[in-house]
Write a structure and sequence with these properties.
It contains 21 helices and five strands. Helix 10 packs antiparallel against helix 11 and helix 14 packs across helix 16. The longest helix is centred in the middle third of the chain and has 24 residues. Bound molecules: flavin-adenine dinucleotide (FAD).
Length: about 475
């Protein structure tokens, strides 16, 4: 049987994997390869933790089918050419990526392998619609979500997901330069990841289980519960999606099948609300593909000249460590540090406080998220930060500055989310939990809270900083787009 390389990247799964599926369907012995290039890898620390365990799960899944994962290091083109030489493979299959580094890699590999006489086939797999093929009637890319979402719905269901191969033949000639997973050194040495294990289990089978549990237990209430950070109201699929352990096409079809089997009212609206979020992911990737500077520079170019603060080191550190004295913010930032994840509503609040009240450039916050989120994703993260900072394509307007006290009271009314992550405030009554600095002294004493001693006073006055932010914004607003 001729053999072919199947290059795994951000698609660490066996089912609905067009590259693997096609290699097998065309009669090849698939040689599964993963390449780690430390010199260009900019995966954050929490994501490296996930990557390690996801690769481990993939190794095991491949072994169960009779194959194995070959891990190579160094430049992708050189590693693939070496593997082709060692195994005698004359064809390479892979699924495409849409971030600037990934698309550059796609092009380099294609050229390098063609020059060596090796055939290549790449596939669409990670999104509902390929950004290059999905645009407005005049061919230009979408910049506003609602028309994008309408067009996506009009385009009909995404491709039908593919089954995993039932078995894979063993590899006769192994590439010579394969390394052990441990040699990649992806796990942190500090023990910081200890609590990640209680929250997450990377891998394709867990992704399926998580989706199934979400469909069974939470989807029907998603429209009401998705904004309540204390509830398990969202799917928790973001890291699984980022590493490609499950595809949006699979999620789309399973969610629609779930709705078709429901007699309860609200099922169709719930599925639509959920798939709309999956579509935001596609939209963020669409923007990154068409505007590759999304990570570094604002989409609204007027913000290039925004008067950000410059002496923000202390504020940034307090924010990063969950020591701002504003409970819902501290709860979010501590949830992030301990679990590698933060609820979407709280991400918006933390990003708004940093960029608007503290006037810290959004890139600083994005960098911290990229390092500490297990779902860190250059498209979703850059898009989320630009949205929150008001400088994105279809962003929250600058003058909409979230008030973390009223938002906390609205979405975490009884304070359970704050109590979970900020134990210093556990005994405070709900009435004061989102604004302990206003609580009467006897209430604070009874709850064991001494502001400024065992819980910080707010590092910023919310009303004053709001006015300062609006002044800064009015300077930018006067400029022409
Ligand atoms: P669910 O509500 O169950 O949604 C299902 C899926 O839809 C998610 O897994 C995700 O893939 C996608 N999705 C949901 N909301 C968004 C959104 N606003 N934008 C894009 N895709 C979305 N998401 C990331 O995956 N990686 C990031 O690095 C990231 N950084 C963010 C930074 C900021 C400042 C903000 C405001 C949001 C960010 N998000 C990011 C989007 C969102 O917060 C997470 O996708 C979501 O909280 C993940 O939880 P879930 O899987 O339970 O979501």
């Amino acid at each position: 049987m001729p053999c072919a390389l199947v290059w795994f990247r951000n698609d660490l799964r066996l089912s609905d994997h067009p590259a693997l599926h096609t290699a097998v369907a065309q009669g090849y012995t698939a040689v599964p390869v993963y390449i780690h290039d430390e010199s260009t890898a900019d995966t954050g620390a929490a994501s490296r933790w996930w990557l390690h365990h996801s690769l481990h799960a993939l190794q095991q899944d491949l072994q169960r089918l009779g194959s194995r994962l070959i891990i190579l290091t160094g430049d992708s083109s050189a590693a693939l050419l070496g593997a082709a030489r060692d195994t005698g493979a004359r064809t390479l299959f892979w699924n495409r990526r849409y971030d600037p580094a990934g698309t550059a890699q796609d092009q380099q590999v294609e050229a390098a392998l063609a020059a060596a006489g090796i055939a290549t086939q790449s596939f669409s797999a990670a999104l509902l619609r390929e950004p290059a093929d999905f645009g407005k009637a005049d061919g230009s890319p979408y910049r506003v979500f609602t028309p994008f979402w309408k067009a996506l719905q009009k385009a009909g269901p995404p491709r039908v997901p593919l089954a995993a191969p039932a078995t894979l033949p063993g590899i006769e000639k192994l590439p010579r330069r394969g390394v052990a997973l441990k040699a990649l050194g992806l796990l942190p040495a500090s023990g910081w990841d200890r609590q990640f294990y209680t929250h997450w289990q990377p891998g394709e089978s867990t992704a399926w289980n998580r989706l199934q549990a979400f469909l069974d237990d939470a989807l029907l209430d998603y429209p009401q519960d998705r904004d309540r950070p204390a509830l398990p109201g969202t799917s928790g699929l973001s890291p699984h999606l980022h590493f490609g352990e499950i595809t949006p096409a699979r999620i789309w079809h399973l969610a629609q099948a779930w709705a078709a089997g429901q007699s309860r009212s609200g099922a169709i609206a719930a599925v639509e609300a959920f798939l709309r979020q999956i579509a935001w992911r596609d939209f963020a990737h669409h923007l990154l593909f068409h505007f590759p500077h999304l990570r570094e520079r604002p989409l609204d170019a007027r913000y290039d000249a925004f008067p950000w603060a410059t002496d923000y080191a202390a504020a940034l550190a307090a924010w990063q460590h969950g020591e701002t004295g504003i409970p819902v913010i501290d709860a979010g930032m501590r949830q992030l540090w301990r679990s590698g994840w933060m609820h979407n509503r709280v991400r918006m609040l933390c990003a708004s406080l940093l960029t608007k009240n503290l006037l810290v450039p959004w890139q600083q916050g994005a960098r911290w998220f990229a390092d500490t989120l297990v779902d860190a994703d250059v498209a979703n993260n850059s898009f989320g930060w630009q949205w929150a900072a008001g400088c994105g394509a279809d962003a929250a307007p600058w003058f909409r500055i979230f008030n973390p006290v009223t938002q906390g009271e609205r979405f975490d009314g009884d304070g359970s989310y704050v109590r979970r992550w900020v134990p210093e405030l556990q005994q405070l009554p709900a009435q004061w939990i989102h604004k302990p600095w206003q609580a009467p002294a006897p209430v604070l004493a009874a709850a064991g809270v001494t502001p400024g001693e065992n819980y910080p006073l707010p590092i910023i006055d919310l009303a004053e900083s709001r006015t300062r932010a609006l002044d800064a914004w009015s300077q930018v607003k006067q400029q022409r787009r």
